[in-house]
Specification:
By secondary structure, the protein is an alpha+beta fold. The protein contains 3 helices and 7 strands. The chain has helices at about 35-40, 105-120, 175-190; strands at about 5, 45, 70-80, 85-100, 130-135, 140-150, 150-160. Strands 1-5-6-7-4-3-2 form a 7-stranded antiparallel sheet. Strand 3 and strand 4 form a beta hairpin. The chain is elongated. About 40% of the residues are buried.
Length: about 190
């Protein structure tokens, strides 16, 4: 059974005010920065997402699509690098990004709904939540992070699988926080109304 350790971190990029609002659709695949792979999946090579039958990752906000919001997701699959960029398809890491954007025209109401999702789904009031899990004997492990900014909740899940997936170096909490902070910055720069 996985043992979960969680930490609440302050990324300095969340706002409870309606001054941060995202009026249009968000492409989740455009949010990760150029260092995301090195930070979340060191020692791997990116492979097509349908290369292996990966376990479905549970991204907290993705489970909360409903009327009044829209959910966009992005899945990236990385395999352990055997050297020279040759992937080992037996050992992989799946990174899933989910963005829930509340679509109410009233910015305050939309921000309140996003805040409520963080509270209901994560029991979190600070706007940032990271958790890491230690996998079972099969080498399966999962990490996730979620952050709220304005009317958006951004979630990331990192799932390992395969015969020797434990050989893929785990993403540190600092690296997960750095990637989430970077994605939030891109979100604010490219999508803020």
């Amino acid at each position: 059974m996985p043992v979960l350790a969680s930490a609440v971190l302050c990324a300095g990029c969340q706002s409870a005010s309606a001054s941060v609002h995202y009026p249009g659709a968000i492409d989740a695949c455009r949010l990760p920065g150029p260092n995301a792979q090195a930070q979340l999946a060191p020692g791997t090579v990116e492979i097509p997402v349908d290369s292996v039958k990966a376990a479905e990752a549970k991204v907290i906000p993705e489970d909360h699509a409903s009327e009044g919001n829209e959910v966009t997701t992005c899945r990236k699959l990385y395999a352990r690098d055997l050297g020279g960029g040759k992937p080992n398809l037996q050992d992989y890491r799946l990174v899933t990004i989910a963005v829930v954007r509340f679509t109410q025209s009233d910015a305050d109401e939309a921000a309140a709904k996003a805040s409520q999702l963080m509270t209901d789904a994560l029991g979190d009031h600070s706007g940032v939540r990271l958790a890491t899990g230690v996998g079972d004997e099969a080498g399966f492990s999962e990490q996730w992070a979620a952050v709220r900014t304005g009317n958006v909740v951004l979630g990331v899940a990192i799932t390992d699988g395969g015969t020797e997936a434990a050989l893929i170096q785990p993403a540190t909490l600092d690296n997960v926080q750095a990637v989430v902070t970077d994605m939030t910055g891109t979100l604010q720069k490219d999508y803020q109304g």
